[in-house]
Automatic annotation (TrEMBL):
Lineage, uppermost ranks: Bacteria, Bacillati, Bacillota, Clostridia, Eubacteriales
Name assigned to this protein: Aldose 1-epimerase family protein
PANTHER family attached to this UniProt entry: APOSPORY-ASSOCIATED PROTEIN C-RELATED (PTHR11122), GLUCOSE-6-PHOSPHATE 1-EPIMERASE (PTHR11122:SF13)
Pfam families to which the protein is assigned, alphabetical: Aldose_epim
């Protein structure tokens, strides 16, 4: 476990998955990150790589060869190395290995840098192509936030406020966790999503091509809030683990689960990213507590 703090907040990061497991605001004595109760959902804020969601039957094809890969990929369960630590930042790295090449046939470097700037946690992602050919991947964040924050509140006292009014459909998942090529209207020139467990009965809400670059978790009962900024991420997932789960995940993604009828090559999967030889990909999100 690695710690970093300033006068306002502190964070904790695990070596496994380079996973954020605490974002604590000192003045109001509030822990914002879900603590990972294994009986409900045992993770805190996993990094999703090299896929987001599920590939069909947990297999995918590269150059007509099949590989097995479980939901959200392997990075969240790998041991990262801490390669840099300063007074304000921690940088972790995962390199390809003989083990990763068996399930993901690309040579890569994945770096995740956490930086504290007053009451903001900035998270930078870097993927570098170390292969002698193109590589393909998806990348996503999956932070869970305690909801409610206080014991005398309910999940339904909270809502999500998008930066701008949106007219959005949510992509529909089937019972196996794949998209079924359908969508349904969800917002109509609105920016507020009132939280209740019914809206998650069919799993996550998944939106694409938002105008908004941030969404804020707010309460009708207190003034605390969490703002997640995700400029340039093309997809946003919102999820909780069934009725009575006291958390909500706000998930910026590059990529998503397979469509139920997809049988093609990995490189042709919708939302997949491509890196040429020696190229690198960079993305940034931030979490602001106030």
């Amino acid at each position: 476990m690695h710690n970093l703090e300033n006068d306002l907040v502190s964070i904790k990061i695990k070596d496994i998955g380079a996973e954020l497991c605490s974002l604590y605001e000192k003045h109001h004595d509030i822990e914002y990150i879900w603590y990972g109760d294994k009986s409900i959902w045992g993770r805190n804020a996993p990094v999703l790589f090299p896929i987001v969601g599920k590939v069909k039957d947990n297999t995918y094809n590269v150059n007509k060869k099949s590989y097995a890969l479980s939901q959200h990929g392997f990075a969240r369960d790998c041991n990262f190395d801490l390669i840099e630590k300063t007074d304000t930042s921690l940088c972790f790295e995962l390199l390809y290995s003989k083990e990763t090449l068996k399930i993901y046939p690309f040579k890569f470097k994945l770096q995740i840098k956490y930086k504290l700037i007053k009451n903001i946690l900035e998270i930078n992602y870097k993927v570098v192509n170390l292969d002698n050919d193109e590589i393909y991947f998806s990348l996503g964040a999956h932070p869970g936030f305690n909801c409610p924050l206080y014991p005398n509140e309910n999940f339904e006292d909270y809502y999500l406020e998008l930066e701008k009014n949106e007219t959005l459909n949510t992509l529909c998942l089937n019972s196996d966790g794949y998209f079924n090529n359908k969508s349904k209207p969800f917002l109509m020139n609105e920016n507020k999503i009132s939280l209740n467990y019914d809206i998650f009965k069919e799993d996550a809400l998944v939106f694409k091509n938002l105008k908004s670059e941030s969404v804020t978790l707010k309460s009708t009962k207190n003034q605390r809030q969490v703002k997640v900024s995700f400029k340039d991420f093309p997809y946003l997932g919102i999820w909780t683990k069934g009725e009575d789960a006291p958390f909500v995940c706000i998930e910026p993604w590059y990529g998503h689960a397979d469509f139920e009828d997809f049988t093609g090559e990995f490189k042709n999967k919708e939302g997949i990213l491509k890196l040429n030889i020696n190229e690198e990909f960079n993305a940034k999100m931030s979490i602001e507590v106030s």
